[in-house]
Amino acid sequence: AATFCVLLIGSTAHGQIPILYYDFENNASRTTFENAVEQAVNSGSAAITRAGNTTTISSVAGAGTFNGGGATGQAATGSNWDNSTADPGAAATNYYQFVVNTSGFSQISIAVDHQASASGPARVGLLYSINGSSFSTVPTVLTGNAVFSAATFDLTAVSTIENQASVTMRLYAFAGSAADRTGRSAFASSGTFRIDNVMVLAASVTASKALLDYPAIGLSIKSGTAFTPSFADFTVNGIG
Fold it and tell me: To 5 degrees, how large is the angle CA 162–CA 172–CA 52?
């Protein structure tokens, strides 16, 4: 990874750069759930955990390519999600959780590929906290219905999570309303919800930071296919 912050010219839907990335691909260098963190720019981050039920990492068609595709890769898969028809918000008890160190970074957002089975949860939301106990919410989105769908949770206006040594994030899922379940089966505890390519993104940096190795990310998200993503609108606001 580079140790000198530079302005990278290119194009991306996010207009930001990844400062933490999980792809769940299986190799000998990882151990448990995401098998340690795949990429982190600084200390403070750790493996993703699951509250409410166990989770497996399994081969899923389309999971090997960022934002869907035909490649077979790995994704995190869990069942026993919240059966609520309304958003449980901060009271959610079924979620994937991870911690990110945003020190020196600002204008944060979270991107994730997600998929639910026909009887799985129809809604996914994000919670965030700077103390690990008091959580705030952002608007939920519909889960991918039997196919992978991409979501970005925009936290760029949330200044409280910027430049923090530890920010706790929770991706939670729930059954959703009757309207949410249009084109889906009735919700069941056996229904699954999957996540892949979880990225924490930042739009600006205020200190000298190590950035992720972009060709290495490309090899992960394209399942071994040579690919170098490009990024735009990243701002260096300091001496870094």
Answer: 120
> To which residue do tokens 């750069």 refer?
17
Number of CB atoms found within 10 A of residue 126's CB:
24
What pLDDT score does 183 carry?
97
Note if the pTM is more than 0.90: no
Q: Which helix (H) or strand (E) holds 218?
A: helix 214-221
Higher pLDDT, 76 or 116: 116
Residue 160: helix, strand or coil by DSSP? helix
Cα(168)–Cα(152) distance, integer angstroms: 17
Helix %, strand %, coil % of the chain (to 5): 5, 35, 60
The answer to whether the CB of 37 falls within 8 A of the CB of 213 is no
End-to-end CA distance of the chain: 15
- The answer to whether 10 and 23 have CB atoms below 8 angstroms apart is no
The Cα–Cα gap between 196 and 148 comes to: 9
β 235-236/193-205 pair status: parallel
Report the range of poorest mean pLDDT among 54-58, 194-198, 235-239. Answer: 235-239
63 and 72 Cβ atoms separated by less than 8 Å: yes
Residue 219, H or E segment: helix 214-221
DSSP 191-215: --EEEEEEEEEEEEESS--PPP-HH
Separation between Cα atoms, residue 143 and residue 112, nearest integer Å: 11
Is residue 116 within 8 Å of residue 75, measured between CB atoms? no
